[in-house]
Amino acid sequence: MSQQLPPLNALRAFEAVARHLSFTKAAVELNVTRAAISHQIKFLEDYLGFTLLERKNRTITLSQGAEEALPKLREGFDNLAEAVHLMRSEKHRQSITVFTTPSFASKWLIPRLHRFSLKHPDIDMQINSNVHLMAADLQGDGGGMDTFFRQNHVDVVIGFGAGQLAGAEKLFAVSAVPVCSPTLVSKTHHHPLKQPEDLAFHTLLHDESDYIGHPSWITWLKRQGVQGVNVNRGLHFNHVSLALDAAVDGQGVLLAIKPLAQSDIDAGRLCIPFNLPIQLEHAYFIFRQKKNNNNQVGTNVFVEWLREEAQLQSREASKG
Fold first, then answer.
1. Strand, coil or helix: what is 186?
2. Which one of 106, 208, 236, 270 is most buried, by most CB atoms within 10 A?
3. Nearest-CA neighbor of 170 among 49, 289, 306?
4. Contact at 8 Å (CB) between 92 and 122?
5. CA end-to-end span of the chain
6. Domains and CATH numbers, the chain
7. H or E segment at 116?
8. Per-residue pLDDT averaged across 303-310, rounded?
9. Which string of DSSP letters, residue by residue, matches 7-51?
């Protein structure tokens, strides 16, 4: 059973007087009269049964008991202030759930999330991902998305598709470009990549993820007019991230969705041996729940931030 505490005003008055060693300064700080401060100190001393302050020749000193208790009292006020701050902050916090593909989450969204958190520290976020679960919904007539939002408690979906669903907002179009480890273009390599025809001497990495519209070496080689490369050979992966990891490791050359490879390119783990991109028919789209009740503000803020990041990506790409 907790002990009964004296009124908070009395404790505040004592702490202020003890800090200033002045009734007058304490009264100014707490915006009360000097008499009110004296009354609160007298009440507290009566409640505790001993003297807290000793007054001699217009100076104030703390009794031994007051001196020993003061640090704990100040700690208590600090904890109380922090608790009130947390309660006030909670009232204004938002929490949104974002659903996207594993590759987009790990290679595009997560490397940028620190900028969102710095800009909007009052919004908590949960990132969910399941490429198999979302693929069917993005290829339907749009009715499946309403059910998807409702059953999975999702606020925003970022998907890769043709954008034929109602309510789809294009985030950005994408291109595919060959990427590889810098070691494969180095002069020290036994057959460095200098032109597309050199692919005949390198292992091709294939992204065969379970989604419609992923880049194909057959399409790229045909558009570039490259012959003599066996597109059936190489290493095949059922996940974009695995293919990108193999490329970083120097296992071969990958035809990658450029935005997903960009963080590795910027870090120097990947390079573009020949800048011959092809535009893909599919793009990344944003879907929002139509009736988003409590999370509408946070959802709007997050979607606006996504647009800003997409525009930033476009400006950086134009410079390059």
1. coil
2. 270
3. 306
4. yes
5. 68
6. 8-92 (1.10.10.10), 95-320 (3.40.190.290)
7. helix 113-119
8. 95
9. PHHHHHHHHHHHHHT-HHHHHHHHTS-HHHHHHHHHHHHHHHTS-
Please write the tens of the pLDDT for every residue from 52-109. 888 877 788 888 888 888 888 888 888 887 777 666 655 556 788 999 988 899 999 9
Q: What is the number of residues in the chain?
A: 320
Q: Are 234 and 200 in contact (CB under 8 A)?
A: no
What is the CB neighbour count within 10 angstroms for residue 260? 24
For residue 304, give every residue at least 6 positions away whose Cβ sits within 8 Å of its Cβ, in sequence order, or none: none
**Parallel, antiparallel or unpaired: strands 59-62 and 53-56:** antiparallel
Distance CA 5, CA 213 (A): 68
State the Cα–Cα distance between residues 36 and 243, nearest whole angstrom: 74
| Buried b or exposed e, range 112-122, using 16+ CB within 10 angstroms | eeeebeeeeee
Query: What is the per-residue burial (b if ≥16 Cβ within 10 Å, else e) of 227-237?
Result: eebebeebeeb
238-246, Cβ contacts within 8 angstroms, sequence gap of 24 or more = 238/208, 238/209, 238/210, 239/102, 239/103, 239/209, 240/102, 240/103, 240/107, 240/207, 240/209, 240/214, 241/102, 241/103, 241/106, 241/107, 243/205, 243/206, 243/207, 244/107, 244/179, 244/270, 246/205
Beta bridge partners of 179: 254
- What are the structure tokens assigned to 294, written together? 């409590």
Express each pLDDT in 127-153 by its tens digit: 988 755 444 455 554 456 666 777 777
DSSP for residue 216: -
- For 45-76, give the secondary structure using H, E and C: HHHHCCCCEEEECCEEEECHHHHHHHHHHHHH
β-pair partners for 237: 207
Burial class (CB in 10 A: 0-12, 13-18, 19+), 313: middle
Tokens of 70: 């003061």
Q: What is the largest CA-CA distance in the chain?
A: 103
Rg, the chain, Cα only: 32
